[in-house]
Design a protein that fits this description.
CATH architecture of the largest domain: Orthogonal Bundle
Largest sheet: none
Radius of gyration: 18 Å
Structural class: mainly alpha
Shape: elongated
Strand content: under 5%
Number of domains: 2
CATH class of the largest domain: Mainly Alpha
Helix content: over 70%
CATH topology of the largest domain: Tetracycline Repressor, domain 2
Number of strands: 0
Number of helices: 9
Length: 185
Amino acid sequence: MKENNTKKKIISTSIKLITRKGIKDTSLSDIAKACNISKGTLYYYYSSKDKLISDIANIHLDAITNAVLECVLEVDINDKNDNMINLIIKKISKLGLQGKIHIYILCEAINSNEKLKEQLKIKYDHWRETLKKEVKKYYTDDDNAEALSFLLISIVDGLLVQSILQNKNSIDYENIANFLVTNLI
């Protein structure tokens, strides 16, 4: 039980440090010090920073996957497709620190970490397939359903970047969702 608590503490502390300093500028020594544990104890749980980042990515990506699936499952087949888009946009607006971690993980995967890149590819494929399956309820055309699933994932990433770059309150998520529904769907 204590082992599990220590691992949770390492992960939660790492996330806090990474959201403040970034992945590159957060060392295992910083994490050990912030957790008030020895470097040896940290190495017992994580022999490398890459393994720690991989666990953080798994936890984060599972949370995002659950949020996307929750949106998809909340949509009734009799609802208009705008309900799904509104739900997804609303979920994005509530991601907070997860959004920042998401961007750091993306940057790490794009810049240097091939294993993490593969992890992300698998999750993104899963997200797109899940969205495509739901979109197909409204569009019988496979090409349109696939295009919309790619577009929705791209919008999620773009809005996460925008929320980090500016004051979250200045992003009108509801207006964005309404625009998408009115003009693109």
